TrEMBL record:
The chain crosses the membrane at residues 12-34, 250-268. Signal peptide: none annotated. One of its GO terms (molecular function) is phosphorelay sensor kinase activity. It catalyses: ATP + protein L-histidine = ADP + protein N-phospho-L-histidine. Its EC number is 2.7.13.3. It is found in: Cell membrane; Membrane raft. One of its GO terms (cellular component) is plasma membrane. The lineage of its organism: Bacteria, Pseudomonadati, Bacteroidota, Flavobacteriia, Flavobacteriales. This is histidine kinase. InterPro entries: CHASE4 (IPR007892), CheY-like_superfamily (IPR011006), HATPase_C_sf (IPR036890), HATPase_dom (IPR003594), His_kinase_dom (IPR005467), HisK_dim/P_dom (IPR003661), HisK_dim/P_sf (IPR036097), Sig_transdc_His_kin-like_C (IPR004358). Keywords: ATP-binding, Cell membrane, Kinase, Membrane, Nucleotide-binding, Phosphoprotein, Transferase, Transmembrane, Transmembrane helix, Two-component regulatory system.
Amino acid sequence: MNKRFNLKIYSKLLFLIITTSCLFFLLYIFLYVYTIQQEKEVYKTTNTQFSTEVVTLSQLNSKTHLATLNDVTFWDGLYDFAKIKDISWYNQFVVEEFKSYEIDYVGVYNLSNEFIVKTSTSKIKTENFIPKQVLTDLYSKKVSQFYMRIPEGIIEVFGATIHPSDDPKKNKHKPSGYFIMARLLDKNYFNNLQKISSSQASLVYNDTDTITDKDNVTKVLVLKDWGNKVVSEIVFKRPFNLDFRSTKKILSIIILAFILNIIIYLYYSRKWMYEPLKTITNILETGNEEAIKVLKKSPGEFGYIGNLFEENSNQKRQLLIAKQKAEESDKLKSSFLANVSHEIRTPMNAIIGFSDLLNDSTLSKNDKSEYLQIIRNSGSNLVSIIEDLLEMSKIDANQISPKLVGFDLNKCLHDLYDTIKVTIPAEKNIDFYVIDNPNPITKNILSDEVKLKQIITNLITNAIKYTNNGKVGFGYVVHEKEKFLEITVRDSGIGIDKKNVSVIFDRFRRIEDDFSVELSGLGLGLAICKAYVEMLGGTIQVESTVGEGSTFIFSIPLKYDKNNLPKKPDEEIVNDIETNSDIVILIAEDDNINFLLLKKILELKNYTTIRAVNGQEAVTICSTNPAIDLVFMDIKMPVMDGYTAFDKIKVFLPNLPVIAQTAHSSSEDKERVLQAGFTDYITKPLDKEKIFELLDDLFRKDKK
């Protein structure tokens, strides 16, 4: 039983609509039938009332003339006139009173039915039109009223016998004659009739003209002659103000509107309810994304549900992507950890291993020199690995932003050429060159010089790494119209296959082949390049053929520096700077090994050193020892950091050179140090030659 009546929501709604519609339709039929019956009843009653009203008004319309006729026919003078035919009396009394009778014709006949005299308006020109039979009947009837047709038209005739005034019942004396009054049923007659009856009145001559209609109530007044024969008919029509046709039209409009409403309701209920519910069922069963798009277009709550389904679908997709990324990241993480472990252990193995070998007192000078060079190179590789990891972590944390400055691009590229050329291993047979540009830039460009250098350096270093014999070149092309700068790094190395081209810029991705296995690196260099290029608002791509080489092309927006300053001539470098043991240098360093290393490096040039183990102690020593010529300030120290200590020292020794030393080596860290007001900065691990070059430049300026 339950299954039999277990209808779906749309079916229930449809059943409710049909049931309600049937009830409404039955109500409509009842109202329509009732309206028709009421219309007939009201029309019948109104028509009866109108007929009674017309008959009464017709009688009243003739009653005045009958009263006049009655008064005149009891006139003694007229009684005598009918006998003696005194025309002068007639003219004096009857003709003068003619207008007051409001008729069109007056005629007098004697008792022998002979015509005596008549008076009429211009409407009736016929003199004697009363048949003798009428006069004969009138003798016995005394008074008569009838209608007849004459050449001028239909007239209403009033006739009576003439008696003396002492015979009011007309039974004492014989009449002396007959008095006839008539009025023409002309336009004025009907205008007056229409006015008093408040209806339209007209003559008809056949039955077809008397057909009634439901728009009017009608009354037909039959005009009969003296022999009771029909002469004509007067039809009275009055608008039937209670027009039930309007009511029926309204009811018809209501039923049509209802049917139309049902059709519209069924259409939109199917469109807005059945189809969305069907789509929702489809989505829940299959997860069809096209169905979700269709549901989103639905109005109201279903569109919102479509958005929820889309969000849910997107979340599922994102979860799936996240899952895939997590799985890939897990694989990359495992590969990365293995790679990092290998890449860090390799230089550490060399550093520790060759450090142990240096303890052998029997080693020759050449062996010691070779071992030290290996340790130095391994240390540099280790620092490079750490710096790449730190740089990528800063990129991920959005801690790096471009610093736009104006610089000479040609000088920048040639400086890079000079710097990189000397680092190319001697065992590699590489022709390193700058690609000639026939249209070089003559203005300074506006970009991040440090990051641009790092991008180009990474690409060139990568090209040299994978090229043993061949060429490595780099250069640029200016696209003035398109407003971008295109920089190219080209090599003739081992090349990259298509499988690896698509992932070459991904993190921790390296080309896995027999050649690359021999090379070190985490696979972050190209990922850093891509991040920096996009940070500068550009794009990077690679074209490569296995065995022929690779070409890396990246483009950045071309902007010129509007504040172009003239270049200062390079100062002449004086290499022979005598060291002075009287120069006192304060080393603010909390780590003993770092202090010892820097102390030993400075003692090679006979500088006198003093140590402070924290920032507070450095401030105290500077305030109590005026002999200090320079301070090496570690940035990160206990008690008081290097920035705070520097600010306090500058209060009382504003001209004292202070060089920051830090383990942070990024361009952002360098910029922060220089903006704080430090004279310069050095990074750990310390480079002896860079420290000596820095001190030589500093003290040379002081001597000048």
